[in-house]
Amino acid sequence: MKIKVNRKELVKHINIVQKAISNRTTKQILEGILLIAEDNILTLIASDEKISIKSKLSTIVNKSGKCVVNARLFGEIIRRLQDDVIDITVNQNNMNINAKRSDFNIQVQNEEEFPNLPRMDDGLNFEIDSEDLKDAVRKTTFAVSIDETRINFTGVFMDVNPEEINFVAIDGFRMALKSIKTKTETKTSVIIPARALNELVKIIEEEEKIIKVDLSFNQIKFTLDNAELYSTLIPGEFFKYEGLIRKNHTTVASTNIFELQNALERASLLAKEERANLVKLDVHDSDILITSNSEIGSVKENVESQVDGEGLKIAFNSKYLLEGIKNMTSETLKLNFTDSVNPCIITEEEDPDYIYLVLPVRLAN
Amino acid sequence: MKIKVNRKELVKHINIVQKAISNRTTKQILEGILLIAEDNILTLIASDEKISIKSKLSTIVNKSGKCVVNARLFGEIIRRLQDDVIDITVNQNNMNINAKRSDFNIQVQNEEEFPNLPRMDDGLNFEIDSEDLKDAVRKTTFAVSIDETRINFTGVFMDVNPEEINFVAIDGFRMALKSIKTKTETKTSVIIPARALNELVKIIEEEEKIIKVDLSFNQIKFTLDNAELYSTLIPGEFFKYEGLIRKNHTTVASTNIFELQNALERASLLAKEERANLVKLDVHDSDILITSNSEIGSVKENVESQVDGEGLKIAFNSKYLLEGIKNMTSETLKLNFTDSVNPCIITEEEDPDYIYLVLPVRLAN
Q1: Measured between alpha carbons, how far is residue B113 from residues B34, B36, B116 in Å?
Q2: Is A73 in CB contact (< 8 Å) with chain B?
Q3: Mean pLDDT of B219-228
Q4: Chain-chain contact of A262 with B298 (C-beta, under 8 angstroms)
Q5: Stretch B180-186: mean pLDDT
Q6: Are residues A156 and A168 in contact, defined by beta-carbon separation less than 8 angstroms?
């Protein structure tokens, strides 16, 4: 292999594929990036066997070839060089990186051991607007379960219907549901590991418009302008989430997100020291009174609110309320209640296609 | 105690005294800030028994009093409130913090257990320009020893003479020496814990001009406009550092700091994996050739340089070179050598009062 490459472009593409690499891999070959130089294109591929990312850039290829180079070392060298253009030459197990005043020789590995990219035979595919996808990922992945014994709930359920795609995360204490309007002409559903989605949104560029999604029986592939991300799917069933979406509420409190978030964060200063980050909400008239007590002290917070319906007292783990609210982008949200034992459904004013549902904590008294 | 206080001012002063608090203290009282409200002044004091910081702000004191409040909790509450002015009332063991929509009650401790500030009887004192002091601390503390069995070298030696003060740090591999011109009319020397100096520079404000220094037999006190920092001194002798300051050199290489730093950092990418971060310098003609070899590869870096005197080959732990260079502020530095076994003395063009000395690594061949 012999190439002449724009250094900043190469750094960008190393950063993209490096997101697939796991720090905890025990296989040396998976600490590497597979480089393929051919037809004036340099292709980079990295994988942790669950997630694989492939990225391409145009470059001058004087001699085609393949090799696997340690991602961390290669990345640090290329990032720290100061030149605009660098020459990379691979001969057998040696890579020479040459710049004006710098000359590196590092070992590379043979590409044969590197895992192949998954084959996507089944041909189910559709398109998603990139902004919609980023929004759906941001508003759901934080709510997946971290309990590896309930593996189905560590992923986001993507429920694809002809007119809309629902992204759903459930961890037993809350649910986040974001709908995206599309025309997929497809009906299917899969569970996508949260990590794959989180890495995906990091490599979606500003200019990116449409993301193509391909599904096979156990793989998903997202195609961007200059990169592809492959992920294994989580097999198994998901929760029948539609049953949780209650339409009738007895109490609805509208409030400023920023004020509510600040008040909950202050109340949590005392709550977090004690059992389950407990905060109590007393919803009445034109206020939500938030209280929290622990051995170290007590706090009362008053949040101005427009309350329609009956007054209500209800308790929550403040962490679950806060995580949902923090990911909302509107100025105003609605807390929708029926009573003190059923879930609170939180909706935000400027996104009617998002709901965040939190189970209350039942109090003994 | 009953006070009405500007919240942002209070946050600023909490941040100042909190720097004295150790995360590792086992005494509950030392997790606290001693508050003293009297004569429309609120005084805050925190201590880890080695370092104590006292800070003052003007405020409305309706009822004077004292208490000790947990620094972390008090700090987080005050920082997270949104009001301009808050009311703080202490009754026995309860502190009430009241703002427009927030009301906290937290426990406080009795002030009697809180350690007294050290007494500074002996009366040796002088003044230092605050910019000079900050510069001296930044250019020396990084070079102290982290070896607690050589306790004298974990501090910075402050060698006070009538015309100048020398700040010296030595760890057995390198020495950093910064001179400040002053008129102290005093001759003395003390060893100051590096942590005290590092915390001190964090609380020196932009407007601060002159810092007053008081010395007693085992304490040092720095007086700023609105704060005082006390530190215990490290007892014992220091190294006779003057003997290390060589004036005659056989080889002097002048080079751009930025280029040298970048080249060393790149060379260290391979070096750091192996024995002692070893880099070899070949100083000759108009270049410094830096090389490094390890199992994973090799690197050559060429740094343009004006070399006066004989050519020379010498090896270093790149970490020691880099730490010194990174703390220099000039564009150009000089590497002053005599041979491959004696220290390299690094001086920077725009600060003739600073020298950084590094011992070379002796190579077997």
Answers
A1: 10, 14, 9
A2: yes
A3: 96
A4: no
A5: 89
A6: yes
Q: H or E segment at A344?
A: strand A344-348
Same CATH topology for A2-113 and A124-243: the answer is yes
Contacts of B265 in chain A (CB under 8 A): 80
The CATH architecture that domain A246-358 belongs to is: Roll (3.10)
Q: Is the CB of A275 inside 8 Å of chain B's CB atoms?
A: no
Does the CB of A105 have a partner CB in chain B at under 8 Å?
Answer: yes
Local structure of B30: helix, strand or coil:
helix
Q: Does A197 touch chain B (CB under 8 A)?
A: no
Q: What is the pLDDT of residue A285?
A: 87
In the predicted model, what is the mean pLDDT of residues B84-99? 97
Residue A274 has pLDDT above 60, yes or no: no
Pairwise CA distance, residues A47 & A26, whole Å: 13
Residue B302 or residue A365, greater confidence: B302
DSSP character at residue B234 = B
The H-assigned helical ranges of chain B are 7-18, 71-80, 130-138, 194-203, 257-271, 318-326
Question: In CATH terms, is domain B124-243 a member of 3.10.150.10?
Answer: yes
Compute the distance between CA of residue A80 and CA of residue B304 in angstroms, rounded to an integer: 18
Q: H helices within chain A, ranges in order? A: 7-18, 71-80, 130-138, 194-203, 257-271, 318-326
Asked if residue A301 lies in contact with residue B101, where contact means CB atoms within 8 angstroms, the answer is yes
CA-based nearest residue to A99, from A80, A114, A113: A80
CA dist list (Å): A38 to A56, A66, A88, A96, B358: 11, 9, 14, 18, 48
Which of B102, B107, B304 has the CB atom closest to A301's CB atom? B102
What CA–CA distance (Å, rounded) separates A39 from A36?
A: 10
**Chain A interface includes B301 (CB < 8 A):** yes
Helix A130-138 to helix A194-203 angle, to the nearest 10 degrees? 130
Amino acid at B298: S
Q: Distance between CA atoms of B359 and B175, rounded to whole angstroms?
A: 9
Map residue B117 onto helix, strand or coil. coil
pLDDT tens digits for range A177-205: 999 999 888 899 999 999 999 999 999 99
Nearest to A80 among B76, B80, B269 (CB): B269
* Segment A300-356, tens digit of pLDDT: 999 999 999 999 999 999 999 999 999 999 999 999 999 999 999 999 999 999 999
Task: Show me where the domains of chain A are located.
Answer: 2-113, 124-243, 246-358
| Contact check, Cβ <8 Å, A269/B103 | no
pLDDT of B273 above 60 = no
Q: Is B72 left (phi over 0), alpha (psi -120 to 50) or beta?
A: alpha
Apex CA B174: angle with CA B168 and CA B175, to 5°?
A: 15
Measure CB to CB from residue A299 to each of B104, B269, B298 and give the nearest one. B104
CATH placement of domain B2-113: 3.10.150.10
* pLDDT greater than 70 at residue A365: no
Contact status of A102 with chain B (Cβ, < 8 Å): yes
Q: In the 8-state DSSP scheme, what is residue B285?
A: T
- The rounded percent of chain B whose pLDDT value lies above 90 is 88
